[in-house]
Amino acid sequence: MTEFLFMKGYIKMHLTLFLRIAVLCFCMPWLVSPAIGQSFQSMTFTKDYFPGTNEINGRALGSTETMTIIKHKGKLFAGMGDWMDYPWETGTEGSQILRKDAYNTPWVVDTSFGYRSMRTEAVLSVTFTKDLNNTALNPAANILVCGAGDISIDRPREINIWVRDDNTGMWIKNTAFTVNRGSSGIRSFAMHTDNVTGKQWLFAGMVEGSVFKAQYNAGKSGWLVIDTTLELRGMGRVMAMTECNGDLYATAGVDLVGTDTVGGLFRRIDGINPSWVQIYRWKYNALDHGDEANIQRGITCVPDPVNPARNVIIGTRANPGVVEIIDPAQSNAVTIELDIRGFFSTQWNTPFRGPSLSAYNYFVPDTLNGQKIWWQSLWVEHPQYQTHPYNGSHFLVRYQDGTYKYGDIFDNSNPLPNGQRLRACRTICKSPFAQEPGAYYFGGYDCANDTSHNTSWIYKGVLSSTSTLNEFMKNGSLPNVIFSINYLSKSIYVNGLGNAAKSYSIMSVSGQVVQMGQTQGNRIGIASLNSGMYLIRLNTGKGNTIISKVHYCP
Q1: Coil vs helix vs strand at 470
Q2: What Rg do the C-alpha atoms of the chain give, in angstroms?
Q3: Alpha-carbon span 152 to 90, nearest angstrom
Q4: Is 114 exposed, middle or buried (0-12, 13-18, 19+ CB in 10 A)?
Q5: Residue 551: which pLDDT band, with cuts at 50, 70 and 90?
Q6: Alpha-carbon gap, residue 42 to 513, rounded angstroms
Q7: Left (φ > 0), alpha (ψ -120 to 50) or beta: where does 259 sit?
Q8: Residue 549 — pLDDT band, cuts 50, 70, 90?
Q9: CA-closest candidate to residue 388, choices 2, 62, 5
Q10: If DSSP codes are grouped into helix, strand and coil, which group holds residue 434?
């Protein structure tokens, strides 16, 4: 297991304060600003899923991607995918849904959809409070739905909403459409009650660029009555949907159809004859060979960072690698909240290269230490991504005020061989098990058109310590603190905090404290340190703490 430093970066785009964590490399005599921490978390990661083995019931565990992990009735379910696992053979299990029944039990296969299905892209636990007749349900109906894709070539492809019967453990198919060719499957789900008719609907966003909906019927097998009217159609992939300020929003990939540009972010106009109005469209990128440069991911309704009494929408785009705020109250004005590439260039002290995908499904709301946060899945790659521990994965945490922190996912007890990597973190879910408070499940991998096999992953992260540190902001200014290294004396000098003795600790990347003590004036002796990556934590003596990641290479 390894101790993971949850709080590494801090950035704020809306307000004037800009804080950053710098990487100190003692290989060169640089003068750099220290990392400044508003809060500090520790997390221990362990590998929790082992593709390429058989589960306790004898069924094969595999998959190339973990698409989503969700909680449902006290258990965990994971939607898996087998994209890019070639050669594709008939008779295989195809895409699976896994289940974890307790904190100390392994993952098992809950169901598989056969060789015709390559991905379970959307899985969601939804609650109906009304049926198709607008009759209140008492109790409400909580069901688990899934949109597994269909890649059949010998028959029309089906677009289905699968529903789990929690009494029997069986999955029931509700077929909405069949198509003769092209993409088929459901990429996103959302619940919404029409503000005019009062009807409650489960909306499904399709891979082929359309939206349809379904209502609940307790007397029907599969429980869903599907309205096959396509409310939104002819767009790119419908990647996400969200409710905000009582309205339903859907984001569909921007595409060029003939001479027309289609797609963007849409708001539903409720009523007997509903319609959708486009509120935002980003520029179409004709050079992208897939559609990643033309889609928006993870739209989620959150309180406005400036005025939390009202709500805005946040979403991400991999190209140019940003988190955007869309403000319905300001004529849907769009602003950049976080430049992901710039953020990691600062954290890693190197020009950013590689992917910048994030919020694969949506921002996951949570409360930590009394603060509202949103977990954000992420694919970026460290400059040393070919070797442990940098060949793990990463994620972001968004705070209410529009600040972000990042962290790394790796397990020293199960290190990946050099040259392999976890790539993307696609999904994050808080544990439903009372026996493991502070536990979260992370899953992912992104094939990115590379042939892959048994590359999916699920890790458990457990918060192992919590401390809240004061923000370095007094009357709107920051202390002028600089770290420097003197190789002749083998010392770190801390300039800007005076010469009074201050307590410090130096930790390895595994969380082990390797040195601690008091500064000698403004000096920390490092003659006993071996070459490697460390984290220095310095108490300023005024209730504040400075945290700095260091790469020591004497």
Answers
A1: coil
A2: 25
A3: 10
A4: middle
A5: low
A6: 13
A7: alpha
A8: low
A9: 2
A10: coil
Q: What is the pLDDT of residues 174-218, one digit of tens each?
A: 999 998 877 789 999 999 999 999 999 999 999 999 999 999 999
- The predicted model scores a pTM of 0.79
Residue 52 DSSP symbol: T
Q: Which amino acid is at 470?
A: N
- Give the DSSP letter of residue 60: B
DSSP state of 238: E
For 170-206, b where at least 16 C-beta lie within 10 A, e where not — what string? ebbebebbeeeeebbbbbbbbbbbbeeeebbbbbbbb
Residues 6+ apart with CB under 8 A from 378: 340, 357, 358, 393, 394, 395, 396, 406, 424, 425
Is residue 344 within a helix (H) or strand (E), and if so which, with residue range? helix 340-348
Separation between Cα atoms, residue 201 and residue 291, nearest integer Å: 29
Contacts of 374 (CB under 8 A, 6+ apart): 300, 302, 363, 364, 365, 366, 397, 398
Q: Cα separations (Å) of 107 from 49, 55, 168, 277?
A: 7, 7, 18, 43
- Contact criterion met (CB below 8 Å) for 208 and 226: no
**Could you write out the DSSP letters of every residue in 363-407?**
-EEEEETTEEEEEEEEE---TTTTSTTTTSEEEEEEETTSEEEEE
Q: Which CATH architecture is the domain 2-38+470-552 placed in?
A: Sandwich (2.60)
| pLDDT class of 498 with cuts at 50, 70, 90 | confident
Q: Are 371 and 363 in contact (CB under 8 A)?
A: no
Beta strands in 73-185 (DSSP E): 75-81, 96-100, 108-112, 120-130, 136-148, 157-164, 171-179
pLDDT of 171: 98
**Where in the chain are the domains?**
2-38+470-552, 42-468
- Yes or no: say if 354 and 380 are a contact pair by the CB < 8 Å rule: yes
Domain range 42-468, CATH class: mainly beta
Which residue spans within 17-74 are E strands per DSSP?
23-25, 39-47, 65-72
291-312 residue pLDDT tens: 999 999 999 999 999 999 999 9
Residues 117, 149: Cα–Cα separation, whole Å? 5
Q: 545 forms bridges with which residues in the sheet?
A: 539
> Which uninterrupted H or E stretch holds 338?
strand 333-339
